[in-house]
Amino acid sequence: MMDLVIRLATANDLNDIVKLLAKGKLNHEGIAQHVEHFLVVEKGGEVVGTAGWEKIGQDYGLLRSLALDASVWNTKVVLDLLQILLKTAEEKAVQEVFLLTGSAVELFEWVGFQPVNPEEIPHEVKQSAHFQQAKARLSTVMRYAQVDNQRKTLHN
């Protein structure tokens, strides 16, 4: 199997990211404004995966647009992508990262996300264009709190 490379996305990756998201029927609107918070997965120089987040206000992030080509899909790659994204969010002083999902609750719990009630979602996050678009078809909102997860790491 050819090695996969995970790297930060650049503006030159936008077309490949949009194609990948369209193939997975995922929202690709607004990605150009957040491309610095996106990662791409490459196999032999071809973009076969992506994931990103957008910063909302000072304290929040919204994870979005996780897509991997079926030929490279495996849990380890997904977990690697998520852990790198959460680390980059932490480096930007983001306190809480939210996401919307349909069926992947357990996968996200694995890296420390927890389901939350709608009233626990900050107003700024609810107002984001991506959240507005995704909430109609994705039923579960989850939150990753940097402080909670750092505490768990220290005590385990």
Describe, in plain words, how this protein is organized in 3D.
This protein is α+β, with helices and mostly antiparallel strands and 156 residues long. It has one domain (4-155): 3-Layer(aba) Sandwich (Aminopeptidase). It contains 7 helices and 7 strands; from the N terminus they run βααβββαβαβααβα. The longest helix is centred in the middle third of the chain and has 17 residues, at 75-91. The N and C termini lie far apart (34 Å).
Helix-strand layout with pairing:
Layout: E1 4-8, H1 14-23, H2 31-34, E2 38-43, E3 46-56, E4 60-68, H3 75-91, E5 96-101, H4 105-110, E6 114-115, H5 123-127, H6 129-134, E7 140-145, H7 146-155
Parallel strand pairs: 4-5
Antiparallel strand pairs: 1-2, 2-3, 3-4, 5-7, 6-7
Helix content: 25-40%
With strands numbered from the N-terminus, the spatial order across the biggest sheet is: 1-2-3-4-5-7-6
Q: Estimate the mean pLDDT confidence.
A: 87
CATH architectural category = 3-Layer(aba) Sandwich
Question: What is the highest CATH level, the class?
Answer: Alpha Beta
Beginning-to-end CA distance, first to last residue: 34 Å
The number of helical segments is: 7
Task: Give me the Rg, rounded.
Answer: 15 Å
**CATH topology annotation:** Aminopeptidase
Q: Estimate what percentage of residues fall within beta strands.
A: 25-35%
Number of domains: 1
CA-based shape: globular
Please provide the ordered H/E string of secondary-structure elements: EHHEEEHEHEHHEH
Structural class: alpha+beta
Largest sheet: 7 strands, mixed
Q: Got a strand count? A: 7
Could you name the ranges where pLDDT drops below 50 across 5 or more consecutive residues?
Answer: 151-156
CATH evolutionary superfamily: Gcn5-related N-acetyltransferase (GNAT)
